[in-house]
Amino acid sequence: MPKKPPPSPAARTAYHHGALRSSLIDATEALLAERGLEGFSLREVARRSGVSPAAPAHHFGDADGLLTVVATLAFDGLTEALAAGNARGGSDPVARLREQGVGYVRFALRHPGRFGLMFRAGNHGDDAELQRSGHAAFAMLENGVRDLLGVPPDQPLTAPQHAVLMSIWSTVHGFAHLTLAGQLHHTRCDLSLEASVDAVVGPMLQQQLEGLQAVMEGTGKQRAR
């Protein structure tokens, strides 16, 4: 068989740039997981990627540009995790939201660097791609609450309905942060961390969601009288 010709210089350059971009993103996530945003530096990311301190500028402009890309990818990943939860939950709105919550915490544990960056104040909220990704993730949760409460997509949430949305988000977000901070290590000592989270988050959300659903249904019936 004839040998394939070697890749052209342009192809090698494109491959190198793509690999470097991914390497810089991976190094950023690892550094954030180890040191947090306060310990982040573009120079250290470049060092871990084996390139000069000026190399990241060709792909991201500056440190803020790199962090914005990582945050955008994080929200995209969270949206995928929530969508997978919807699939596991099937047609039951309680099960769908419960599995969204489990997926939310799992995502935080698997990607602590990205999760720690996503909701930081001043995280380039005016970036169009970051806004798109953030809104898509939040829409997954909001649509789950709409299904739970029977609110059509074109109807604004009332104040009590919005409170339900905030209650569910606060529960899983707070649980994720407490777990990452090592405050819930005693939850189920006989299980791995992720298994113990699954064992706790699912039942906890099931109780919360059934209670919220019952309260909102009771409120609606009272208003209808």
UniProtKB/TrEMBL annotation:
<dbReference type="Pfam" id="PF00440">
    <property type="entry name" value="TetR_N"/>
</dbReference>
<dbReference type="InterPro" id="IPR025996">
    <property type="entry name" value="MT1864/Rv1816-like_C"/>
</dbReference>
<dbReference type="InterPro" id="IPR001647">
    <property type="entry name" value="HTH_TetR"/>
</dbReference>
<keyword id="KW-0804">Transcription</keyword>
<protein>
    <submittedName>
        <fullName>TetR/AcrR family transcriptional regulator</fullName>
    </submittedName>
</protein>
<dbReference type="Pfam" id="PF13305">
    <property type="entry name" value="TetR_C_33"/>
</dbReference>
<feature type="domain" description="HTH tetR-type">
    <location>
        <begin position="18"/>
        <end position="78"/>
    </location>
</feature>
<keyword id="KW-0238">DNA-binding</keyword>
<feature type="DNA-binding region" description="H-T-H motif">
    <location>
        <begin position="41"/>
        <end position="60"/>
    </location>
</feature>
<dbReference type="InterPro" id="IPR036271">
    <property type="entry name" value="Tet_transcr_reg_TetR-rel_C_sf"/>
</dbReference>
<keyword id="KW-0805">Transcription regulation</keyword>
<dbReference type="InterPro" id="IPR009057">
    <property type="entry name" value="Homeodomain-like_sf"/>
</dbReference>
<dbReference type="InterPro" id="IPR050109">
    <property type="entry name" value="HTH-type_TetR-like_transc_reg"/>
</dbReference>
